[in-house]
Amino acid sequence: MRRALASLYQACGALAAVFLVGVCLSSLYSMGGALFGYVARSADDFGGFCMAASSFLALAYTFGSGEHIRVTLFLEKLHGAPRRGLELWCLVAGTFLSGYFAFYSVKMTWQSWQFNELSQGLVPIPMWIPQIGMALGTTVLFIAMLEKLVDVARGGAFVKEVDAKDAHIER
């Protein structure tokens, strides 16, 4: 099961990279329009849709890789059972919030499809199409958070911390 979930997270990360390339292509198309004197219709809309999809689809991949920003101001001062309890509390809160966000993202996408909501740009696009990236990304993040919560509750490690010397930070 873990291997299947890891593959799901990697697939979402790869999709995020594809949409990031879409942002680049949209920007190049828009700049080409300005350079060669044509109107790049809705290039900024498509770039925004690609950016949103890329951001949300990358959430589960970065969480699973331990790359999310963690504020460890309090955690680093705790050891043993108190630290584990606070980490579990953070995972419970994060799982709840990501589940809440995923539920309403899917609901919003579904309602956009039901009402046939269109984008406001020069090229009208059904809004449920770009909203799929957000709905999928938040749902997969919820699955990743739930998986980590179950793992930590069973005694597993919380998140692999990156040491400052291993982070390749130039000083």
List keywords for this structure.
171 residues; mainly alpha; single chain
Task: Please tell me about this protein's structure.
- With 171 residues, the chain is mostly helical.
- It has one domain (2-162).
- The chain is 69% helix and 0% strand.
- The chain has helices at residues 2-36, 43-64, 81-115, 128-153.
- Helix 1 (2-36) packs antiparallel against helix 2 (43-64), helix 2 (43-64) runs parallel beside helix 4 and helix 3 (81-115) runs antiparallel to helix 4.
- The model has no long low-confidence stretch (mean pLDDT 87).
What is this structure, in a nutshell?
The protein has 171 residues and is mainly alpha-helical. The chain contains four helices and no strands.
How is this fold's topology laid out?
Elements: H1 2-36, H2 43-64, H3 81-115, H4 128-153
Helix pairs in contact: 1-2, 2-4, 3-4
**Strand tally:** 0
Q: How many domains, in number, for the residues? A: 1
Main sheet attributes: strand count, strand direction, barrel closure: none
Low-pLDDT parts are: none
Report the sheet-strand fraction: under 5%
**H/E element order:** HHHH
Task: Give me the Rg, rounded.
Answer: 20 Å
Overall pLDDT metric: 87
Number of helices: 4
**End-to-end separation:** 41 Å
Helix content estimate: 55-70%
Structural class: mainly alpha
Quaternary structure type: single chain
Net shape: elongated
